[in-house]
Design goal:
8-stranded parallel beta sheet; 7 helices; 8 strands; 36% helix; globular; binds D-xylitol-5-phosphate; binds zinc ion
Length: 233
């Protein structure tokens, strides 16, 4: 069960003076995706990267680039991000009048489509569009900044979403974004996530990427063992 859990380091927490090297190190450590946080200063109170960085990341790795668009009117920038090398584009449900159209456009361009939801947005609003998406990205913090604490209530939603997806017999990945670290990783996976975005607990630590990855995997393993022990009691 634990083997199919994918870790997606978020470069928001990387050292941008050596971004290429950091992405390379993450890949060598066993990262399966690279998460790129695009923020527009409107949808979220922070401003970060655009297609230029995606294009630089694309030249640094052959891993899939998971681009998280925290921006209003994402439909205007989709072509540019696909051209820059995005593998998956996550748009926020809260930003769209025409989510179906935007997701369809992403797929039409040959990119994987993801829908992201903020902590206050219920899973149920996704029912009609689930068949169109490859991934649901559940925000477990309010988007805008790295290094925040996971909001525990959002894990109930991850679980509801897992049930919703399984009830429709769909092969959709559930990614969790925000506050994933050695302490929370077990609960996040137990709730039903299969892809974990990890920013500050991966790049902004005293550990090397190899050690960071090992510590996350070990924490997950230990959680799994402790749950099994509790169940056997
Ligand atoms: C937050 C971003 C996250 C961020 C996570 O708005 O969407 O991807 O990088 O950072 P940590 O893991 O530090 O919470
Ligand atoms: Zn993100």
């Amino acid at each position: 069960m634990l083997d199919h859990i994918r870790i997606a380091p978020s470069i928001l927490a990387a050292d941008f003076t050596r971004l290429g090297q950091q992405i390379h190190d993450a890949q060598v450590a066993g990262a399966e995706l690279i998460h790129v946080d695009v923020m527009d200063g409107r949808f979220v109170p922070n401003l970060t990267m655009g297609p230029l960085i995606v294009e630089a990341a694309r030249r640094s790795t052959d891993l899939p680039l998971d681009v998280h668009l925290m921006m209003i009117e994402p439909e205007n920038m989709i072509d540019a991000f696909v051209k820059a090398g995005a593998s998956t584009l996550h748009i926020h449900w809260e930003t769209g009048f025409h989510i179906h159209r935007t997701l369809s456009r992403i797929k039409e361009l040959g990119c994987k489509a993801g829908i992201a939801i903020n902590p206050h947005t219920p899973a149920i609003v996704l029912t009609e569009i689930l068949p169109l998406v490859d991934t649901v990205l559940v925000m477990t913090v309010n988007p805008g900044f790295g290094g925040q604490t996971l909001i525990p209530e959002t894990l109930t939603k991850v679980n509801q979403l897992r049930k919703l997806i399984d009830s429709q017999d769909l092969a959709i990945s559930i990614a969790v974004d925000g506050g994933v670290n050695e302490t929370t990783i077990g609960q996040v996976v137990a709730a039903g996530a299969d892809t974990l975005v990890v920013g500050s607990a991966f790049f902004s630590t005293k550990f090397t990427p190899d050690q960071g990855m090992e510590r996350l995997r070990t924490a997950l393993q230990n959680y799994d063992v402790s749950q099994k022990q509790m169940a056997a009691r």
